[in-house]
Amino acid sequence: MSVERNTRAIEGSVVTDFEDRMSYGGYLDLETLLSAQRPLSDPEHHDELLFIVQHQTTELWLKLVLHELGAACRLLREDQLAPALKCIARVKHIQKTLTEQWSVLATLTPAEYGQFRGVLGNASGFQSAQYRAVEFTLGNKNAGMLRVFASDPSAHALVKTALEEPSLYDEFLRLLARSGYPIPADVLERDVTTAWTYSPELLPVFTEIYRDPEAHWAAYETCEELVDLEDNFQLWRFRHLKTVERIIGLKTGTGGSSGVPFLQRALDLTFFPELYAVRTEL
Predict the structure, then answer these.
(1) Which of 86, 156, 169, 253 could form a disulfide with 149 if both were Cys (CB 3.0 to 4.6 A apart)?
(2) Are 210 and 276 in contact (CB under 8 A)?
(3) Residue 85 DSSP label
(4) What average pLDDT does range 48-72 have in this prediction?
(5) How many CB atoms lie within 10 A of CB 68?
(6) Percent above pLDDT 90 for the chain
């Protein structure tokens, strides 16, 4: 079927009657999704929609990240390393998309943001329960964050669950122990509600793995996948910081933080410090 006069004919087999059939919009519940953008500026400022869409799409991607990380943790518990790595690989692609999204928000100028910033009140990305749950699932836990979600039972439950469950790194180390690697008992029995901190006792284990990758390929590959996750997360944090700096400079954040200095300190937080330290040993 050729294209004539720059018009493509609709094939006869294409379904066009959705009176009693599932449609694209129905399956995705687009009526709900596309009506969830409700700018508060009055008169409505053109750029507020960008701000809302940016953050809503981020939350959708975070929902998928949590879905994949949760599956990866479960699969590691079941000693199913290969499918767990597939989940991690998907998360890495999502992270790249999330990082690139900052370039869209960075088109918002200080003058444009200033036109509607006031309507945010104290709303801030710092209050994202899904983001915090992702951080906790990767091991960067902080029980003090729970009080941010005290007024929202569902958000509080999500973050509390992520706080109390073993992190992705915990599950990986337990899998290594079951596979015969000499993971110290105090590491395996640690309080998983606390932030992971550097454990020098793990360095000999990872040094052995990295000095002979072929003999330890499954463990070695997983280590490198985790390093990719942390690299990507730090790039996201950095792009966040630079976007905020570009738009509001050194103003305080809407949520009450110091803004850029507060975000700068996040770059010092780590997930898998031994996987970086082992490089010095090789």
Answers:
(1) 156
(2) no
(3) H
(4) 98
(5) 20
(6) 97
